[in-house]
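Two proteins, back to back. First:
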Amino acid sequence: MNTWQAPQRPNAYAEKTLIAAILDGTFPPGTTLPAERSLAIQLGVTRPTLREAIQRLARDGWLTVHQGKPTAVNDFWQEGGLNVLSALVQHSQHLPPNFVSQLLEVRLNLAPAYTRAAVENNAADVSTILANCESLQNTAEAYAAFDWQLHRGLSFASGNPIYTLILNGFGDIYEQFARLYFISSEAQDKSRRFYAALCEAANRSDVERAGQICKEAMLESIEMWRQVDVYRKGKP
């Protein structure tokens, strides 16, 4: 039996199609979009629908709308916000080769900070989250899901919702690549040791130790990903 899915709304379709066209070079940064009437015909949508999609993309930083002038395509890496990041991870075929490494470097800067804050503000919640790692199955899927829930849980417990918003920006891609990372039993072992050490620090409410443990684990994950990525690219 097929699962019923609601049809895609015309404005969502137009928005997604325009993003894909920007990413695949049909409308590269530095160019302008075709005239509204022509573009609406190309997309098969009404002009009001197209305008709504363009306004949303302009809000997120993909486009700049000038009254009476063609709509400009922005350099979204410079002009975009969190919504651009969310859109990029939904078009993973267009991501640059070093995108995951760069995300891990961002996590290296963020994770120790929200981990320290989480242990300082709510060590009991951190201990509760980490206690679940004892029953983790030795599968890439289980580790990927737990790791994502851990980092989101730490961001919640930190008391700063901005951390959670940033993490949510690449939530769609996190588990996808984490499953590749955790195929390695070495990666699983390193993470299990990280979880256990962090749990101990949380139980002692040792804020600085928790931050240091997290920083060391994030550095290890960058090195491990490089090894996984080299192996993945070398496969036939």
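And the second protein:
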Amino acid sequence: MDIDSDLKYDTHIDNIVKKAYQRIALIFRGFASRKPELLVKAYVSFVRPVLEYCSCIWSPVLITRINTLERVQKYFTKRLYGMEDLNYTDRLSIINIESLEMRRLKLDIYLYYKILHNIVALPADVYFRYDDRHLNVRSYDENNLVKPLLNTVRKSQHFFNRCIDVWNFIPVAIRNCDSLSVFKRAVADIDFSCFMTGTVSL
């Protein structure tokens, strides 16, 4: 990624994070109640959309950027009553929300599904290629997408490249679900933790 575009990208993420922190501050100032369930609803309604808007376009792959975004949710959950001494994983489990990195991954996968099933006006054959090598090797699978050779961070960060491995990880039967709603329910039961790269302290 060239220097100018890299700086613009970092500035974009910095602006998102700044706005999210401002909204978190407003939530804690504006609500007299400190019930976690109420504050979580406010966070999900007013803060998380800021952190996820059009994330399929800009979702980061670099650990530093992933962590910068995740710290926002980590900060919010740590301020909830009774959760100050719990680690981040336990806090997420108690309030029943996923990490931001996991949510971005799933949003990417949902859009992959829409493209590959012709639900959106993006031609799948232009952006994706199935494995048609017809090779007698273990890695060959005609139901899998082929990941192009990537020699730059910028290419690996591109939406049409960054989640191919994740898509191929999903069982074929689930990838071929008849509807997006069924696909989402099935994907919810898959453990994608092996694809998480963020290292925010828990």
